[in-house]
Amino acid sequence: MTATTHRTCPLCEATCGLTVTIGPGPEGAGEAIGVRGDAEDPFSRGYICPKGVALGQLHADPDRLRTPLVRRGSSWTEVGWDEAFAEAGRLLAPLLRQHGADSVGVYLGNPVVHNLGLSLYSRTLIQALGTGYRFSASTVDQMPKQVASGLMFGTELSIAVPDLDRTDYLLVLGANPMVSNGSLLTAPDLPGRLRALRRRGGRLVVVDPRRTRTAEIADEYLAIRPGTDALLLAGIARTLVEEGLADPGPRVTPYLNGLAELGDALKPFTPEAVAVATRIPAGTIRRIAGELAAAPSAAVYGRIGTTTTAFGTAASWLVDVVNTLTGNLDRPGGVMWPEPAAGSPTTTGEPGRGRGVRVPGSRRTRVRGLPSVFGEFPAGALAEEIDTPSAADGTRLRGLVTVAGNPVLSTPNSARLGAALASLDAMVSVDAYLNETTRHAHVVLPAASPLARSHYDLVFASFSIRNTAHWSPPSVPLGPGELDESEVLLRLAAAALGGSVTAEQLDDLTASDTARRIAADPSSPAHGRDPGDLLAAVAHRTRQERLLDLMLRGGPYGDGFGAEPEGLSLDALAAAPHGLDLGPLRPRLPGVLRTPSGRVELAPPQLLAEAARLADHLAELDSAPADGLLLIGRRQLRSNNSWMHNVPLLAGGSNRCTLQLHPQDAERLGIDTGEQVRVRSRVGELHAEAEVTDAVMPGVVSLPHGWGHDDPATRLPLAAREPGVNSNLLTDEAPLDVLSGTAVLNGIPVEVVRAAVAAAP
Ligand SMILES: Nc1nc2c(c(=O)[nH]1)N[C@H]1C(S)=C(S)[C@@H](COP(=O)(O)OP(=O)(O)OC[C@H]3O[C@@H](n4cnc5c(=O)[nH]c(N)nc54)[C@H](O)[C@@H]3O)O[C@H]1N2
Ligand SMILES: Nc1nc2c(c(=O)[nH]1)N[C@H]1C(S)=C(S)[C@@H](COP(=O)(O)OP(=O)(O)OC[C@H]3O[C@@H](n4cnc5c(=O)[nH]c(N)nc54)[C@H](O)[C@@H]3O)O[C@H]1N2
Ligand code: SF4
Ligand SMILES: [Mo]
């Protein structure tokens, strides 16, 4: 008997539809799982990448954890769930009691947002712990875009997304969607969609220090000195203003604040001045500005290479400044706001006006006094908050809960973090593997197979180039002894509270909060209803499905619990196994805004201050002597940050953890391809194999992140066969994009020498 189900791939932001078949394995050897693209998915139309195919192997991976583990010294014991939660409670509850809620931190990793149960119940866990020490992968990733969008449009999820399928001109900075499949740009089959843009006569321009696969298929590739995109964008924006090309258009102009202040702030950034710093000629900057203004529609898009720099927030702001000045804000083919079916901050509350965002946040870290951002602290400050007790009273982080995160490979100066984790009084990890981070935990709570959970993309609906809704039921039942992660987080929260509440009670609280929010929301079709009635309508459901049904029914397309009988509900989605297409993005100004002014803020004071800081930086760069080498990262097709190297389909092969450097630099340093080199930065050093290639520009070296699987205390035997090196041994936790607390992971000053030379006496 073979069973077939359809589900959305949870591995990256592209949200491809998959067809999963489960049949008997060869000669009764368990089950055989096949994964292929779902040709009937209206959004992905059968597209799949190697990672999606590998989900079957991930499910079957014998090294994936299936039983809770408790560590005593260096030895692990498999225990039952009751004992694991009891142990977690024994470790965490006394810390919370004796040292206060802020003695225990939480780190949420990237897969949290790809997992419905984790994204909904991690909030419950944090509230139960009561801690202000919340960290996540957002501050090694997209936080600058959230801060800039929050200040301009009113919420941290007010991110304007390129209307990819309709644009005539796409300017990509610091993103490699041919490999990454897109980020803050949810669109299955980005390679196909980029080719389609060119086929319909559109133009693709890529700005990157490395000639990536995306650059290779582009009409034009511009090599840029790392860390200088904000300057380039400021130069483009200034050109638009000075040459009279700035025209936001009659529909958008009435909703703009700050145009004059913006013009003043841009004055220092002449194309000539920024050309020196960026290495992009002034004439090219003027031409690109003119092309963007003249194109029937155009979208500027920046990602990791723009956000994980010291001017990440400034660059993210200037991306949308250029989009606005060229008349491309909120119009088809420009950048637009999706309308998520399960709701988002841009679809709730009073349309067109709101509280805006508070940036910087109100709290400060103990050690460096870094501000919070949307309630969390910079991931780059985690290690120091553990290893540096306050002089006054010795307070520090003594406990940590990690959920779906591997910060020891993913965050800057990770050697320091690894050492800090080893000193914790209590560490509990919810994860699929015993890896470089979770090996430090005292209790590891295993994640079930991604095929055994139901799924809905709550978060990526906010970044999607079409409005869609796709709910996936579990494709396989939970394995023997496995627990759904909603259950894991709720029981962990209850244990940390010392058993004073049950998981069930915490879940009911979460559901009644959700119902109350919906009933109080003036935009909801269920506005004004009795929250008790809403809960009664979904009483047949449990856990994340109960919460999701509430959100769908009370959301922008919802059935309003009967008020709009044709509207969406979980039942309606369950009846559409390939997902529902809710249409192309629609203009949403002014209703989408949640700024206090009810306008788009082009020049909020925090961003004007960033522009001033950027102008100072420009003056510094222009007078500084030539750089040494600058390190950047790169992503690889068959990788997923740090965690899928233990799956046969994705291990080894074409994914090579090499240090790429330009032939000119190689010659100067006497380095050949295949040789071992020593790379050193302010914080650390490592050895890597050199790969000489003119894909990187002179002065730039590139090493992928997510490698370094050589820690003997992990259980990743396949990954360990080709371990690579951890590039975050070199990245530095000291410099930050301060407004967003985001780490600088690109443009790290490094010294490279032949290992043989380094070893010589
Ligand atoms: N130098 C450099 N560093 C970078 C980046 C870079 O470009 N350069 N990129 C940054 C970016 S964009 C990101 S998002 C971060 C990622 O940072 P992290 O999220 O900290 O790291 P990941 O490698 O994604 O690790 C995910 C963890 O979740 C576990 N996991 C996977 N699926 C599940 C699940 O369903 N449930 C549970 N409980 N666990 C699961 C995996 O085993 C792994 O331990 O890395 C950042 N680090
Ligand atoms: N195959 C694969 N896909 C993934 C992931 C993965 O690990 N593997 N990770 C997923 C995650 S968590 C994310 S956040 C996304 C990220 O998605 P992307 O941002 O598209 O991915 P990257 O490949 O990191 O692209 C960043 C690019 O920035 C360039 N760059 C570095 N410094 C600079 C600079 O100063 N200026 C400019 N203009 N460019 C610069 C790099 O050379 C690189 O090409 O990918 C997701 N998809
Ligand atoms: S592109 Fe992303 S969502 Fe699509 S199959 Fe690959 S990993 Fe999954
Ligand atoms: Mo990411």
TrEMBL record:
<dbReference type="InterPro" id="IPR050123">
    <property type="entry name" value="Prok_molybdopt-oxidoreductase"/>
</dbReference>
<keyword id="KW-0411">Iron-sulfur</keyword>
<dbReference type="InterPro" id="IPR009010">
    <property type="entry name" value="Asp_de-COase-like_dom_sf"/>
</dbReference>
<dbReference type="Pfam" id="PF00384">
    <property type="entry name" value="Molybdopterin"/>
</dbReference>
<dbReference type="InterPro" id="IPR006655">
    <property type="entry name" value="Mopterin_OxRdtase_prok_CS"/>
</dbReference>
<dbReference type="InterPro" id="IPR006657">
    <property type="entry name" value="MoPterin_dinucl-bd_dom"/>
</dbReference>
<keyword id="KW-0004">4Fe-4S</keyword>
<keyword id="KW-0408">Iron</keyword>
<dbReference type="InterPro" id="IPR006656">
    <property type="entry name" value="Mopterin_OxRdtase"/>
</dbReference>
<feature type="domain" description="4Fe-4S Mo/W bis-MGD-type">
    <location>
        <begin position="2"/>
        <end position="63"/>
    </location>
</feature>
<feature type="region of interest" description="Disordered">
    <location>
        <begin position="333"/>
        <end position="360"/>
    </location>
</feature>
<dbReference type="InterPro" id="IPR006963">
    <property type="entry name" value="Mopterin_OxRdtase_4Fe-4S_dom"/>
</dbReference>
<dbReference type="Pfam" id="PF04879">
    <property type="entry name" value="Molybdop_Fe4S4"/>
</dbReference>
<keyword id="KW-0479">Metal-binding</keyword>
<keyword id="KW-0560">Oxidoreductase</keyword>
<dbReference type="Pfam" id="PF01568">
    <property type="entry name" value="Molydop_binding"/>
</dbReference>
<protein>
    <submittedName>
        <fullName>Molybdopterin-dependent oxidoreductase</fullName>
    </submittedName>
</protein>
